Amino acid sequence: MNQELFDLNKAISRNPKNASLYHKRGIVYRELGDHKTAVNDFTRAIEINPTIATYYYDRALAYLSFTLVSDEAPRQAIKDFDKAIELDPKNASYFYGRASAYYRLGCVFISDFPATAEAWEQANRDYDKAIELDPKNESYYVARAQWGSDNDKINALTKAIELNPKNASSYSGRGSAYSSLHNYEQAISDYSKAIELDPMNESHYFSRGLAYSALDNHQQAINDFNKHIELKPSCSVYCERAKAYQALGNHQQAINDYDRAEECSNKETYIDEMSRERDAANCCHQRAIIYHNLGNYKQAIIEYNKAIGLNPTNACQYYNRGLAYNNLGVYPQAVKDFSKAIDINPLYAECYWRRALAHGSLGNVKQEIIDLQIAARLEFKPAREFLLKIGENW
């Protein structure tokens, strides 16, 4: 048994009315990961002396350590933070803790946007209050940067950096906000600083590579993706490097990278098998697009077949395979693929347009007009222009 726990057990047996002893033992249990027992001890301390704010605060932290995916634990934590704040309204850490509880509550309600938004707005108010009470605490600004506009995030992280210019994650987070605002030069500056401070973190190279890609500096992006791969190969980084190679016209290297990305997808840990299959399908789909653009429609169809086999609910894959069949003059199969894409996405205007043209190539004029009219009603401009030219309404 933990020596400190052993000593506290003996002390409590001698003095079972000492709230402080239960509180101390609760902290030990919490540190040992036994959060339920910690809650019991904090509760006993509160029963003996309900006027101590830290007892409620520490019980709230124990509730937040529960792994249950429900609103019960964060709601219990919020009640305790409320009481701690009532007893000591000038303690910034209590507001910071309650903000974390509201954030957890919002995550539980993630499928209910109004409830999530309400919880996260309260979290923001509590973070703001914590900052007001303790404006020199870097962690409060970092937490505050999780929500709000990109400019809000930049302002919060700028303050965090002023307080601690050695935190790589603050530069990386601010770089992400700059990227969202399409200020890629500033984003690259921040990612570079993050790399200087934490050169073994592959995510910084990945983020900077994306920013370079956005500026069409594809070779520099490849250099960063290379470093990421050196540190930790992944499906996503191979896909991004493949895109950069495509942009430089190095199609074979792009195909090779999609091969490697697919291999990684078979090795990486995913939350579910569907996510793995979706990533593998994307690799096949992207290879197919390269072959398609190079005019190798037969090889493109082979890759589209693989993609559809892995992810049969992606309308775009059927649409693109339909285009490949259309380019080979295999119009019946093109019609089938366009029809499947429409089954999945009935508002796919361009697909109606393409199916109309395939019907036209087969001499199915009536069906061609019907598809053109649907595409026109979906506001697809080429279909409207075509119908006007032949004197048909939609």
Shape: elongated
Q: What is the alpha-carbon Rg in Å?
A: 29 Å
End-to-end gap: 81 Å
For the largest beta-sheet, the strand count, sense and barrel status come to: none
Q: Helical percent range?
A: over 70%
Q: What is the helix/strand order?
A: HHHHHHHHHHHHHHHHHHHHHH
Structural class per helix/strand content? mainly alpha
Poorly predicted ranges (pLDDT <50, ≥5 residues)?
none
Oligomer: single chain
Beta-strand percentage range? under 5%
Count of discrete alpha- or pi-helical segments spanning 4 or more residues: 22
Q: In total, how many beta strands?
A: 0
How confident overall, as mean pLDDT?
94
Describe what this molecule looks like in 3D.
By secondary structure, this protein is an all-alpha fold. Helix content is 78%, strand content 0%. It has 22 helices and no strands. It has helices at residues 3-14, 19-31, 35-48, 53-64, 72-87, 92-108, 113-133, 138-144, 150-163, 168-180, 184-197, 202-214, 218-231, 235-247, 251-267, 273-293, 297-310, 315-327, 331-344, 349-361, 365-377, 381-390. Helix 13 packs antiparallel against helix 14 (235-247) and helix 18 runs antiparallel to helix 19. The longest helix has 21 residues, at 113-133. The radius of gyration is 29 Å and the shape is elongated. The chain starts with a helix and ends with a helix. 44% of the residues are buried.
Write the layout of secondary structure elements.
Elements: H1 3-14, H2 19-31, H3 35-48, H4 53-64, H5 72-87, H6 92-108, H7 113-133, H8 138-144, H9 150-163, H10 168-180, H11 184-197, H12 202-214, H13 218-231, H14 235-247, H15 251-267, H16 273-293, H17 297-310, H18 315-327, H19 331-344, H20 349-361, H21 365-377, H22 381-390
Helix pairs in contact: 1-2, 2-3, 2-4, 3-4, 4-5, 4-6, 5-6, 6-7, 7-8, 8-9, 9-10, 10-11, 11-12, 12-13, 13-14, 14-15, 15-16, 16-17, 17-18, 18-19, 19-20, 20-21, 21-22
